[in-house]
Task: structure prediction
Amino acid sequence: MAPLFISMQMLLLVFTCILLHVTCTTYHDSTPKTVPSTNSSKWVGPIGHRVITVDVNGGAHFRSVKAAVNAVPENNRMNVLIQISAGYYIEKVVVPVTKPYITFQGAGRDVTVIEWHDRASDPGPNGQQLRTYRTASVTVFANYFSARNISFKNTAPAPMPGMEGWQAAAFRISGDKAYFSGCGFYGAQDTLCDDAGRHYFKECYIEGSIDFIFGNGRSMYKDCRLHSIATRFGSIAAQDRQFPYEKTGFSFVRCKVTGTGPIYVGRAMGQYSRIVYAYTYFDGIVAHGGWDDIDWNTSNNNKTVFFGVYKCWGPGAAAIRGVPLAQELDFESAHPFLVKSFVNGRHWIAPSDA
Result:
């Protein structure tokens, strides 16, 4: 009778749990969470792990990054780590929207490089000009992409100011919840297309001359180096927020601005462009006035932009403060731009990665 007694106890426990709606653990954004038990199960995050190796010299699963991405199935449900050995990978790579949860892991941003050379005026497969957004050496449309210790480069020559058709992106991120750590982005005009979605860049190196970070992403750049190679003049960020209700914008926290100039630190690509610099060092390369609020559509001064500065320093910092275009923020107004909640990071960025 003892086995039957135990079985009855177990049945009673299960019945009680159902009545009390006991919760079970599931995974979303790679972080354990609890959701109420239901009669139907629903997949809410990645299941399992897969490692794919790439080495341009052979001895791995693939010799190219493109081949590794192609090996990931459509509607991917796994965390896929693509380990890319040291080397120069001369190829153009696209991560489609149907392949989320992919990580590019390099051997170091100085030794693992993906590069290509397209310019906006170059003809595409259909014979028409590529235009800026399709020039990127690497384009990511998928959500939950991450990259670590790897560089992305567009080797097209740097244009002189005013030259048309020379935009040449190294990387385009159009997916949501993307994370970058220890990465390099190298180009000249329009290096990093921060197109759409929430993104977090940590300890990255970004180099360019004109609008070398641009788009309508909602992004935080923390402890990054922004290096200008401008000759006659240049600009760092061109942010494309179009409407006041959009939550997009660029926040630069504890960054370092170096290189050549003169440069503007921000330009109004969109009517409600939003850019904030906090705790950031500026070399003495900032142009007089610091910012450019000219509306790209009307060529008039834009009165609806939000350019903010909080506790920046260095020989070029004076040029971005105390000017009509930029607000000198206090802690209360700056705080939303200083923490990872600016990109809803508490839900998808691990504390150790912030």
Notes: The two ends are 57 Å apart (CA to CA).
